[in-house]
């Protein structure tokens, strides 16, 4: 008797949302599963692009550009947090996850604020 192979996205869903929600997020029809898989693929591509952009910005020596970039990242993380509060909690299957995700978004925004404070301190000391 062979064990049924469990896909990697399902394991990630279970880790992030719990077993019951992960089963719901897999979709019930092949069309739903295709849409969810496509969405996951585009999310991964977006994360790769963002990582590449951060890597490239890390080599820029211009402090004003880095400050501008950090301010944009703070705005982006706060916007995502607001989106999660207004729309994320309306999704029945993910309703209990939004407070944790909003906290994470604010923590990421705060990390960029710390970078801005550190840069400001270096500039004026």
From TrEMBL:
Organism taxonomic ancestry: Eukaryota, Viridiplantae, Streptophyta, Embryophyta, Tracheophyta
Annotated protein name in UniProt: DUF7865 domain-containing protein
Keyword Transport: no
Assigned keywords, A-Z: Membrane, Transmembrane, Transmembrane helix
Superkingdom of origin organism: Eukaryota
Residue ranges annotated for the DUF7865 domain, each copy included: 11-113
Coiled-coil regions, chain positions: none
Entry's transmembrane regions: 42-61, 68-86, 98-120
The species this protein was found in: Castanea mollissima (Chinese chestnut)
Keyword Transmembrane set for record: yes
């Amino acid at each position: 008797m062979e064990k049924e192979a469990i896909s990697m996205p399902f394991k990630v869903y279970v880790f992030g949302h719990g077993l019951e929600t992960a089963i719901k997020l897999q979709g019930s029809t092949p069309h739903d599963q295709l849409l969810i898989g496509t969405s996951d693929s585009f999310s991964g591509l977006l994360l790769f692009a963002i990582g590449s952009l951060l890597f490239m910005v890390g080599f820029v020596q211009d402090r004003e550009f880095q400050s501008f970039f950090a301010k944009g990242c703070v705005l982006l993380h706060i916007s995502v947090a607001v989106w999660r509060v207004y729309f994320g909690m309306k999704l029945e299957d993910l309703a209990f996850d939004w407070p944790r995700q909003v906290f994470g978004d604010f923590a990421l925004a705060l990390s960029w604020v710390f970078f801005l404070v550190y840069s400001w301190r270096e500039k004026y000391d």
